[in-house]
Amino acid sequence: MLSYLIRRLLLMIVTLFGVSIAIFLLLRIVPGNIADILFDSAGLIDPAEKKKIIADLGLDLPLPMQYWQWLNGLLHGDLGFSYVSEKPVIDEILPRIPITARLAGLAMTFAIAAGVPLGVISAVRQNSKLDYALRVLSLSGLSMPAFWLGLLILMACVRWFGTIPIYDRAPETFGAWLAMLAIPAAAVGFRSSALIMRLTRSSMLEVLRQDFVRTAKSKGLSDTAVTYDHALRNALLPVITTIGVETAFLLGGLIVTETVFNIPGVARFLVEAIRWRDYPMVQNLVMFIAVVVVTVNLIVDLLYMLVDPRIRYSE
Amino acid sequence: MSTSALPAASGPVTHSFMNNVWYNARRYPLGVAGAIIMIVFVFAALFASTVAPLDPFSTNAKASLAPPGATHFMGADMMGRDVLSRLIHGARVSLAVALGATFIGSGFGAAIGLACGYIGGWFDLLVQRVTEVMQALPLLVMALVITASLGPSLQNTIIAIAIPLIPTVSRVIRSNVLSLREMPYVEAAKATGMSEWRVAIVHVLPNTLAPLIVLATAQLGSTILTEASLSFLGLGVPEPYPSWGRMLSESAAEYVRTAPWLVIYPGLAISLVVFGSNLLGDALRDALDPRQRD
Amino acid sequence: MAPVLEVSGLSTVFHTRRGLVRAVQDVSFSVNAGETLAIVGESGCGKTITALSLMQLIPRPPGEIVSGSVKVDGTDLLKLSEPEMRKMRGGKIAMIFQEPMTALNPLMTVGKQITEMVMLHDKLPKSAARTRAVEMLHHVRIPEPERRAKEYPHQMSGGMRQRAMIAMALACKPKVLVADEPTTALDVTIQAQILDLIGDLQREFGTAVVLITHDLGVVAETANRVVVMYAGRKVEEASVTDLFANPLHPYPRGLLGSIPRVGSARGLDVSPDERLREISGMVPALNDLPPGCAFAPRCSQADARCHAQVPPFEMKQNDHFAACWQA
Q1: Does A5 touch chain B if contact means CB atoms closer than 8 Å?
Q2: Which of C87, C97, C104 minimises the CB distance to A220?
Q3: Structural domain of residue A118, as residue ranges?
Q4: What is the complex's ipTM, to 2 decimals?
């Protein structure tokens, strides 16, 4: 188990290394020099100033050197400076993380709390009217763009309450925080819950066909005991393995949701950085997202080992 | 005792094509609904200029933010352009992106998956590492970065959406090929002295087609959604051509109060088409590839 | 002595897309306490569906038990409500399955899986139920039962898991044990041990056993009475000695000819060097049965009547029944 863990960690480092190379190269195959763009957008004309910008940004160095500077900085916690605000990147990113983390946590809680039970009900009542209704609901959840759902919710708020719950100041109390984030969390969590519901349903149907469920019934257990004590625990295993995928899915949804609800989190910040062509920022934000996804995947694997005795006791 | 819930078979099963279509249509009514939505969508896209009641580009200051009415069935936007006509023309962008990205993504994905399953060794290992790298990033993030790098245009949007699809497809095809290679009839074909490539083309490729079709159909919806998100964020298909996502661009939040039709209809168009493609995808999966069934 | 299990006129059908599948038709038999009745036949002959019908574990829909009665100690199971039936399952009538590899819940310790059932039926507190579970594991000769009870199914071998299944099935001292191919998935050496174990426990607890199998060797070694099924119907029923000595229906005659060695352990009269004979032809589809005897298309002695009319199931010799126009 320890050797598995070590191998897993090494693979994770290799993956992140690959991400860093990919993102670095991707941002440098852009036609046109970043300095030109910055130069033009700043409305400068003096060639000397342009030279200075290029030198300041290290753009005159060969690519491997530029990469090494970035990577070396990353490893020492120095993420460089934003082109736009000229503040250290880390000071820009760090305060935004808790906002996105809370929103994501809330959305994931909502997605699991709604998705798992509804998926179970749908599977247990397979082919009933309720099952059909739930399947159409989950499919429509997957079909609606998260930002549109957000806009619809805003529209409903205007109609019924006369106001729009836009994030205009940092909430102070837990209640205010919950009230502010609940609606965007629901908007983005609905899609995730639809995904989880479909997964739970299919996994549950698979498990309900298995022999040990028949054994459990042959013991005289009630339907409830068979469904929850025996089937559900087994059905959740594949759902757990996809939490990593679901996290990536959720992060994608957060980008547009934070934009719609004007929430100053990291996800929206990525879009802003891309729009401003603030490459140090983009580079580091993408790295951050990759670290989150890869770490979640690692945690999921460890969790799986705890839940499934077949893996826990192997080796 | 419960009575029968399933209909008894009616008459002998004949194998003509139309019968088959009819049988499957009755078996998957939701799939038929999806197919109808998709047909309407493709029709609107192909004949946009004929079908659209007005010119989607012509601006009209007097009609600015006109609510739905006789002239503008679904209202008009800030610049007085007809929303319905723009939606119909926007179907072209969605269709081009959906077909283009799915085709490119599935094509490259299938080719890479086949190669991995066949060549194996260092090539397979390398591709798997690259796949892991790509899957460490959410689809939208990767598409965003790629468009940021390539610059906004229809072509680049298609490429940006197609690339993240490749690993998903190649992984499925790879595992499919690996399991197919173990099949007795493939072993038998090799034992009779058929060359590896012939076995690959005659036996393995046709058997990966069904999962590939299922997978590609399932991607249609997600490509449309990704394009909508990119355009919504202002990094997708550029002006002036109407794209559903851009019609909903950030300023839409302002119209929530004043011009809800500008928010409702484009979103409805996206959701409906994606819903249709998902319904179709689910039915195809159930009919063609029971292994992926849920 | 009144039989513990009395099945009469049991018919089970499946409503499918391809029409009504008559999986079990008019099957009757009875078993006394401490006795073993074997139901034999090829796969698809309806023997497993018969077993599941006894337990009422037929998936509904598409399955449906259309007629008959299944009496355990005089109580007709088919007339019970689902909650009442649940008390019988595991309590009065228990079942062991073919695949010990998949029949146990992989995420629950073996001990817990037995304990759970004892708590349910015998209303024992958890600690007492646990003690009983360990006792039962000891009973089925699992070494170190205390430790094994804390293990998960995947940590046990196939034979060990089947022992655990038996311990579970017998934990509440049921009147009737339905064993569906209990040894098919096991190695030959383990098979004999498991059969011996079932026999010993049966004698000790006085359980009536219904043994579903396709293996005539197993029948010869363990059963008192045999029911032969073909295409959902009983075709012959006799004591094991009578059936092996003098099969009346051509189907069991063919079956007995198709195994190389039978029941030499019990001194039954089968010549050891008899050539392996196969029955030619295919089992008819259960949704498309011929109008007459279902075996007629494969039978060398079939005549016009065999093809036209279903033969009645009747006593042909003393306590030896068969459904055949020619016998």
Answers
A1: no
A2: C87
A3: 102-275
A4: 0.85
